[in-house]
Amino acid sequence: MQGIQTTTSEREQTRVERIGAHSHIRGLGLDPTTLEPRGNSQGMVGQGKARKAAGVILKMVKEGRIAGRAVLMAGPPSSGKTAIAMGMAQSLGSDVPFTMISASEIFSLEMSKTEALTQAFRRSIGVRIKEESEIIEGEVVEIQIDRSLTGASKTGKITMKTTDMETVYDLGNKMIDALSKEKVIAGDVIVIDKSTGKISKLGRSFTRARDYDAMGADTKFVQCPEGELQVRKEVVHTVSLHEIDVINSRTQGFLALFAGTHRSLIKAELRDQINNKVSDWREEGKAEIVPGVLFIDEVHMLDIECFSFLNRALETELAPIVIMASNRGITRIRGTKYKSPHGIPIDLLDRALIISTGAYLADDIKEILSIRAQEEDVSLAPAALEILTKIGSETSLRYAIQLITLSNLVARRRKAAQVDVPDVRRVYTLFLDEKRSVQFLKEQNSLLIGEDGQIGGGAGVDAMEVA
Ligand SMILES: Nc1ncnc2c1ncn2[C@@H]1O[C@H](COP(=O)(O)OP(=O)(O)O)[C@@H](O)[C@H]1O
Ligand SMILES: [Mg+2]
């Protein structure tokens, strides 16, 4: 497609999210037709109303019916807001983008707040592009690779065939690497995308079914393709607007070298150009927009400028669904003197659908704790689970979950295979929960350093609680 590129042979480095705390969550645990929450499903327990509401929103996202909407998940700490968002992410289709940011990271990137938000928005909008591409599809007859003495450069040849023809192709360095990465050997049926150099293995050829050496338990056998080796095929791929931005700003000549990675600023003109191109493609039936989800956790950490940016950005034609989460009550909006529910300006709140999450019942806490114990491969004695449940109800679910790992360490030190009550007691006394920590501060205030740098001179806990 002239002008704007949408693919690159280099793979984008994806950001690694720290999702350890939610690794047990594999979906929202809803009945697929009625969207009713199931008791304990896909790692999800309780919080039925919020899960169902999330399911309804998800359904609308999947049908591509809504875009540019805002959803707020409001509830006390450790009531499952982030967990539900992760559940939504898992149930979106594989080509629907889901971006997760924590509001405070906007302030720590080496770019302006609005650039960071713009990038987050554009990461969350997919463009599904149909393209004709030329591929080579056939059975590998032979691969021959010559390494130079130093091993630095490689050349080679690959012989491929269909039932009707056979051809030898020259291999460059990159193709050789791709072949060895996919562990392609003679007898495999493969597809090479000529424009990107991407290689995918379809399976082993039936003619090699007797080659036991090269077979694993899950070897898939396919027919050797017929007809021409090189064919044109329509392929569909989905990229985010942000990826298109990055691919095209990199090719902007040598200055792009200094601009560095995708963390750098992308010019507004380039974005306009890309938006125009994408809307041309849509008219020509070559592309579709796939609005995804942008999840902004701890949204009360955004300031008034970010909020007005959000308001405006939600109104543009290319906007994703923005899901926000906050655990604040009536609190000051950052960057102003004014207070507002959840620390979010009223005009933004007004356009948001609000889902609330509440405290858990003891039974739910117990079930979540046992799911987590399983996830972390920890065996809990029934009495230990009881006491952890009690701790979870009286302090917070997150604190109780953390104690699982810690008490397991203690149990392992005494070479026990199972965590028992004394192990939990031990870590409970070693690590304070939030309430006990505040209590400790109150008692020890005279010994701690305060805001003015003086021991015991700080305004102390009371001031902290008001702030
Ligand atoms: N309904 C639930 N089902 C399963 N696990 C949950 C549920 N709610 C919360 N959790 C788990 O409890 C911990 C705290 O929840 P989290 O979603 O981080 O709370 P919040 O974001 O509301 O502060 C996380 O490890 C989360 O995965
Ligand atoms: Mg959270």
UniProtKB/TrEMBL annotation:
Q: What is its EC number?
A: 3.6.4.12
Query: Which reactions appear under catalytic activity for this entry?
Result: ATP + H2O = ADP + phosphate + H(+)
- Give one GO molecular function term: DNA helicase activity
Q: Name one Pfam family in it.
A: TIP49_C
UniProt GO cellular component terms: Ino80 complex; Swr1 complex
Gene3D superfamilies per UniProt: 1.10.8.60, P-loop containing nucleotide triphosphate hydrolases, RuvB-like helicase, domain II
- Name where it's found: Nucleus
Q: Which stretches of sequence are listed as region Disordered?
A: 27-47
SMART domains tied to this protein: AAA
The AAA+ ATPase domain, residue ranges? 67-372
Q: Give an example GO biological process.
A: DNA repair
- UniProt cross-references to SUPFAM superfamilies, sorted A to Z: P-loop containing nucleoside triphosphate hydrolases
Keyword set includes Metal-binding: no
Q: What class of enzyme is it?
A: hydrolase
**Which UniProt key words apply to this protein?**
Activator, ATP-binding, Chromatin regulator, DNA damage, DNA repair, Helicase, Hydrolase, Nucleotide-binding, Nucleus, Transcription, Transcription regulation
The record's annotation in InterPro entries points to: AAA+_ATPase, P-loop_NTPase, RuvB-like, RuvB-like_C, RuvBL1/2_DNA/RNA_bd_dom, TIP49_P-loop
Look up keyword Membrane and say if it applies.
no
Main subcellular localisation: nucleus
Quaternary structure annotation from Swiss-Prot or TrEMBL? May form heterododecamers with RVB1. Component of the SWR1 chromatin remodeling complex, the INO80 chromatin remodeling complex, and of the R2TP complex.
Q: What does this protein do?
A: DNA helicase which participates in several chromatin remodeling complexes, including the SWR1 and the INO80 complexes. The SWR1 complex mediates the ATP-dependent exchange of histone H2A for the H2A variant HZT1 leading to transcriptional regulation of selected genes by chromatin remodeling. The INO80 complex remodels chromatin by shifting nucleosomes and is involved in DNA repair. Also involved in pre-rRNA processing.
Family statement drawn from the similarity comment of this UniProt entry? Belongs to the RuvB family.
Q: What is this protein called?
A: RuvB-like helicase
